[in-house]
Description:
The protein is α+β, with helices and mostly antiparallel strands. It folds into 2 domains: 2-134, Protein Transport Mog1p, Chain A, CATH 3.40.1000; 143-268, no CATH class. The protein contains 8 helices and 14 strands. Strands 1, 2, 3, 4, 5, 6, 7 and 8 form an 8-stranded antiparallel β-sheet that branches. Strands 9-10-11-14-13-12 form a 6-stranded antiparallel β-sheet, with helices on both faces. It is elongated, with a radius of gyration of 21 Å.
Amino acid sequence: MNDMYSSLPEEVDGWSKSDDDARYGRESLYNYMNGGAELYLAFDFREVFVRRYSDGSENEIVLDIYNMGSPKEAFGIFSCDREDEDAGIGQGSEHGPGLLRFWKDKYFVSIVAMSEDEKTDRAMVSVAKAVESVIPAPGNLPDLIGSLPQSGIKENRTSFFHSNVSLNNRYFIASENILNLTNDTNCVFGEYGNHGEETGFVLIVEYSTEDEAAAAFETFTNSYMPDAEGKNIIKTENGNWTSAVNSGKFISIVFEAPSEERAGELHSQITLQER
Length: 275
């Protein structure tokens, strides 16, 4: 990693390194970010390398390279907050005003600019491409992503995570951790409804043991759908349907299906494989 960081250019498009580089680990991350560390620590975050570039005025570009420990963790932190268009950088990216984010292999990269003019925007892209070029190879997506139904899935709206804070950042279900999520649970979440197809959301949770999954299933159904009367499907107050299934070490839940039939259709397309 030291070799990778030393390979980064100190000058890009007229923007020069403006301060000493910094690195923060799990113990010191709170010293770098106030209020956002919990989201990173919910993954297998190892450290973040920070470099600042300046154009000689008060404008500044801040480059953060997060070592997330593995490709699935890098994809996970990237996937939990996507809003902008893909920039075609790395294995997945987004580029909006003053922000460019991408992931490749075990690294998640965030580039933030203080201004939003065209010159700064070009420099951000150049910095991103320079970082991408020193990351030697791509990594694999989490295996659990392949368990989601593929028909009608919204591109760039699938997520991988572990904890309740990440779930609620993606789709709020309750203030309490009613699915008993921990850093050892693996979760994927998908949104549906491309091109006029029926909508819905699918959450799949993989637990370490079948007993853990069964206990979480009981807690979830008792808390979230207490009036289901043992049917594991219920029509919610907004007129949509929620259904839940426990299968071995897995729980799969369909939220906001427009019909009971649609909920069953999404469940039938889930493909679970023990690992």
